[in-house]
Amino acid sequence: MIINRYLFKEIALSFLAALLVLTLIIVGNVLVRLLSEASTGELPADLVGSLLWIVSLKQLIRLIPVALLIGMMLAFSRLYRDSEMSALRAAGVAPWHFYRAIFSFVLPLSVLLAVMVIFVSPWLEAHNLDLRREINQRPEASGIPSGEFITSSSGTGNYTALAENIDPSHTVMERFFIHAQDGVKDVLIWAKSAVLFIDSANGERVLQIRDGYRYESDPQQGGMTVAKFTEHGVRIPLRNYTAMNTVGTIPTLRLIQQADASSQAELQWRVGIILSAPILALLAFPLSYTAPRQGRYSKVTFAILIYAIYANVLATVRGMIERGDFPLFPGLWWIHLVMLALIFWLLRKYYGKPA
User: In the chain, how long is the greatest CA-to-CA distance?
Assistant: First the structure.
């Protein structure tokens, strides 16, 4: 029991330290990216905090397995460096004693990770999707800041727009002006207000302009047409946005009932995140074996490389399943079996056949 408590403490402290460092790195990178988008007008500044919280929590869920691997590698490497591992083995402590201590920490952590993956992750994806939709429907997301002229061009023409003011709800542009050049025609519109929304039929942005005037000139025929309107719609494709994936927002219990490739790939991906924690915990012990003259961190880099290959193969095969280029069975399961085979090979190499 004393050895179990000691090993549990070493693993827990190293895991928390690794998780903290990785979290700070990821949160810092996410914050820099979001601030960059906010500075260019692609992201409203008041939503930076909400997106930072959601994206950081999503990344934290995925960081737990790799933090567990690195933390355990550091803990066992220190035991090898200080010759504590040699003393424990000389005292008759077998590998299964280490695994008993390992899984006394890993199993509760895996249960917590499973709850987060099954229930929290879809909730976060849904809120992230809602925020992105809200951003796309706000004037700032289409490059229309308050009180500034903006210009843009596309295959259909050139646009210049100005919103003198945007109301506190970030939806209504007051005293709105737009000049559009479509081929040889010039169209100028001034209105008291304009609202940006997403056309549910095709996903394009549409400006619903109210209480204004439309001036249209035709240089070929000469003259200008002036029209007063109460409501007028104009499409302004100022920026292109890729379609957002919604399969990640589907609750896990619903995914089980769906047989399409995208849903099954997402389900196997979520289960894979849960399985990766105990698999990487199993891997950390034999991989941390260090000879007397080897450095303390000699195997950590190799462990990170194995994890990178493991994660990238999972992501690649997941994409192939979604496209229909890989069968649902064996799906992602064979990758976890390969990792288990590697673990048993390392155990036999460094610790011999079980007694």
Answer: 100
Residue 16 — pLDDT band, cuts 50, 70, 90?
A: very high
Question: How far is residue 123's CA from residue 343's CA, in Å, rounded to a whole number?
Answer: 34
**Residue 245: per-residue pLDDT:** 62
Question: Is 30 within 8 Å of 16 (Cβ atoms)?
Answer: no
Residue 121 pLDDT? 93
Q: Which residue has the tokens 């240089």?
A: 219
What whole-number distance in Å separates Cα of residue 345 and Cα of residue 294?
Answer: 21
265-284: string of b/e by CB count within 10 Å (b at 16+)? bbbbbbbbbbbbbbbbbbbb
pLDDT digits (tens, 9 = 90+) for 292-301: 666 666 688 8
Token digits of residue 147: 């009180």
Q: Work out the burial of residue 105: count CB atoms within 10 Å of its CB; fewer than 13 is exposed, 13-18 middle, 19 or more buried.
A: buried
Rg (CA), the chain: 28
For the whole model, what pTM was predicted?
A: 0.74
For the chain, the residue count is 355
Distance, CA of 157 to CA of 152 (rounded, Å): 9
Distance CA 19, CA 21 (A): 6
Contact yes or no for 164/147 (Cβ under 8 A): yes
Say if residues 303 and 70 touch (Cβ distance below 8 Å): yes
3-state secondary structure of 159: strand
